[in-house]
TrEMBL record:
This is Dephospho-CoA kinase. It holds the Pfam family CoaE. It comes from Aestuariirhabdus litorea. Keywords: ATP-binding, Coenzyme A biosynthesis, Cytoplasm, Kinase, Nucleotide-binding, Transferase. It catalyses: 3'-dephospho-CoA + ATP = ADP + CoA + H(+). Its EC number is 2.7.1.24. It is an enzyme of class 2 (transferase). InterPro entries: Depp_CoAkinase, P-loop_NTPase. Gene3D superfamilies: P-loop containing nucleotide triphosphate hydrolases. It is found in: Cytoplasm.
C-alpha cells in the first residue's frame, strides 16, 4: 500500500508536538523522528556503545542510558563532533523511521521531524506542513520549556533551517503565535484537506495537487 505522508516540521519550540498530538487524537498515525532518534541509542543498541567509545562513558547515566543533555551540550559546542554523531545516527534513524512509516495504516501519516528539510527525509513526504511562529517567540518558548540558556537554544536554532527557508519549502503552514484553539482551528481545515488528498493519492506516485 502506498500511503500519503505529510511531513510536519518547525524550529525548536515551534509547537510540533502540540500539532501532532491533536491530529493523532483524530486517528492519524504519527512517526516522530525525535522518538526514532531515542530508540536507536537505547541501552544495548550498537550506536550507544559507539557514542560511549567516542565521547567517553561519562555521557552514560547510572542506569546505562544516554545523558542526552550532556551530549547535546558537547556537540553543539563543537561542529566536528556534531557531524561525527550525525554520520553515525542519521542512517539508523532513517531506517527506524522507514520501518514505522511502513507499519502505519491511518488515512494519511504524519512524519514529524525538526530536520525534515535539512535531511533526506523531505524526499519521503508528499506534502510539507510548517508550524510557524516568530523566532523571538520560538526562543522564549524553548527557554521556558527546556530550561536551557539562550545561547544553547540559539546554537540549536543555528543548525536548523531558518524561518524563511522553512516557509519557502512549505506546501502549508500554520501560525502558532497565539493560543491552542487558534492552532487547532487551522489544523482542522488542513486535516480535512489531507483526507481528501490521501483519498485521491495515485498509487505509487507523489501527489501534486
Amino acid at each position: 500500500m502506498i500511503m500519503y505522508i505529510v511531513g510536519i516540521t518547525g524550529g525548536i519550540g515551534s509547537g510540533k508536538t502540540a500539532a501532532t498530538r491533536y491530529l493523532q487524537a483524530k486517528g492519524i498515525s504519527v512517526v516522530d523522528a525525535d522518538l526514532a532518534a531515542r530508540i536507536v541509542v537505547e541501552p544495548g543498541q550498537p550506536a550507544l556503545q559507539a557514542i560511549a567509545d567516542h565521547f567517553g562513558t561519562d555521557l552514560l547515566q547510572a542506569d546505562g542510558t544516554l545523558d542526552r543533555a550532556a551530549l547535546r551540550s558537547r556537540i553543539f559546542a563543537d561542529s566536528a563532533q556534531r557531524h561525527w554523531l550525525e554520520s553515525l545516527l542519521h542512517p539508523l534513524i532513517e531506517e527506524e523511521i522507514q520501518a514505522q512509516l511502513s507499519a502505519s495504516s491511518s488515512p494519511y501519516t504524519l512524519l514529524s521531524s525538526p530536520l525534515l528539510l535539512e535531511t533526506r527525509q523531505h524526499q519521503w513526504v508528499d506534502r510539507v506542513l510548517v508550524i510557524d511562529l516568530p523566532e523571538a517567540l520560538q526562543l522564549e518558548r524553548s527557554m521556558a520549556r527546556d530550561n536551557n540558556s539562550e545561547a544553547q537554544i540559539r546554537s540549536i536554532m543555528a543548525t536548523q533551517a531558518s524561518r524563511q527557508q522553512r516557509l519557502e519549502s512549505a506546501d502549508d503552514s500554520v501560525d502558532n503565535s497565539r493560543d491552542l484553539p487558534h492552532l487547532y482551528q487551522q489544523l482542522d481545515r488542513l486535516h480535512e484537506r489531507y483526507l481528501q488528498l490521501a483519498a485521491h493519492h495515485p498509487t505509487g506516485e507523489k501527489n501534486d495537487p
